[in-house]
Amino acid sequence: MNEQQKRQLLEYLKFVLPALEKNDSEKGYLWINNPKNNFKMQIYFNSYFEGMALIERYRHNQVYIGLATTDGAGYKVENLISRSIILIDIDEEDLEINQIYDLCKKYSIYGHMVVNSGRGWHIYLKLDKSYPIEEVTRVNKQLVQLFKADTNACTSTQIIRVPYTKNFKVDAYASIVKANNQVKPYTLKKLDDHKPIEFKNNNTELQFDKIEDLYCFNQLIKNGASKGLRNKALIFISSTCKYAGLTEPKALQYAYKFNDNCKEQQTKTEVIKVVRSIYSNTSIVKPCTTELGQRLCSTQCKCNIITVDDVLNKVDETIDKDIQIGFTKQLFDKNIKVTRFVKKVEKVERGTMLNKLNGSEILVLSELKTFRNNIHTIESLVDRTKLSKPTVTKALDTLESLGIVTYTKQSINRSAKPTNIYSFNEDSTKRYKEIVYIGRGLFICRINKLITDSDMKVYLALKYLKDTRQATTQLDIERVSGVRRDKINKSLANLEHRDIIRVDKIKTNIGHCNDYTLKL
Predict the structure, then answer these.
(1) What pLDDT, in 10s, does the model give residues 297-340?
(2) 358 in a domain, yes or no?
(3) CA atoms in the 13 A half-sphere facing the CB of 172
(4) Which one-letter DSSP state was computed for residue 265?
(5) pTM score, whole prediction
(6) Are 288 and 422 contained in the same domain?
(7) Do 377 and 421 form a contact (C-beta atoms < 8 A)?
(8) Helices (H), 341-388
(9) 272 or 109: whose pLDDT is higher?
(10) What is the side-by-side order of every strand in the sheet holding 159-161?
(11) What is the count of structural domains for the chain?
(12) Same domain for 218 and 182
């Protein structure tokens, strides 16, 4: 195996068996056989690197891995300990990868990993935690039946072919086609009795159980809108309710709820006027065909209203980036104009999310995002970030206003006065997807004063530009980061000095330019 395959295999083992190294009682299981010489062996391993070594040693045989950890005394149901993977085995070698994507879209399922087994496809779904084996198996069988896949490959003691090992049936090696471990995993409840998208009437409409399943509608109701978007949002909400067959009074209730969540509210008379105008009109508008609906639309939406052609025929090779990386279209449309020409001189207009957040806000966000399970109060954040209490309070207010942070009031240590407990809002990554890049590494560098706020923003801008395969010129860095050009060189020099990035000069057809390797 080459180095890339080794890295992928290590990620695969961590993906399939996340609990392996968390305690001494759980072990991984491998079944190895070679039909040509009748070699058979079952073996257990205690660590990822031990498993890697065994797979490398026996990869020219048929190597299968257990999807659950075991106690090491066997691989029967009574020996299994934990499992957090759903597997769909499609045993049809004639299918192409685009047809596998089509099936996932058809059945409204996002596959976190797809493996070419040599004579078929293995679709892996990641669960958010370990569940009882019998419950995982029950839901696994439902999804296998939905996909019309191999019903023999969804048992409690299921083993599956390991990538980069040999399949003697076709004399080929299995391989990983797609792996997106950063995408939010499923809860078992969400997959239980999963209902796919169903089309009706000219293959363009969507049947949904409740209107809250529409991501765009739900986000507007929960978060409100700014002053310039209120009327458009009310028209969208009213049109969506009408399309869903709700009564005008019910639509008015949703409109009132939306208005309550707006920072600057309209009068009830204005709200009623908009709703009434939509319901008095005879036309019916599909929500996701409107400009606002398209801007708010998300690939994570449970019930997008789209055509059959959009779902079944379009091979979306950037499906990963649609979910886990990049700035949302809404953010760009709202906050940035890429270039403006004034007397043939190119002028950059800065103003992305990186420019909205200052260094203190990024530090607080990093702490909340990295340690999601901790209890975060203003006092604990002051202690962790080494910022002053007024600075932390102001940062939390800003993040809360953007919907990135939420809080609840709880009594701690029997205190009579409830305390605000802050947490990172996972849903905010659907609106501000660049938040994915803010992590612990930058936090540590900044808290130890190794880098400045501008350095952080330049690094995050580089990460975004590289992951979205855009140019990384200083003009682009300035556009995305909001850092002025005269400060970018200083930030790049410091990041390189701190060994956070590596800068290489490469020759292109338009001259020499910088190539950046990011190390965090």
Answers:
(1) 554 455 443 333 332 222 222 222 222 222 223 323 333 333 33
(2) yes
(3) 9
(4) P
(5) 0.45
(6) no
(7) yes
(8) 353-356, 359-370, 378-385
(9) 272
(10) 39-45, 28-34, 62-66, 159-161
(11) 3
(12) no
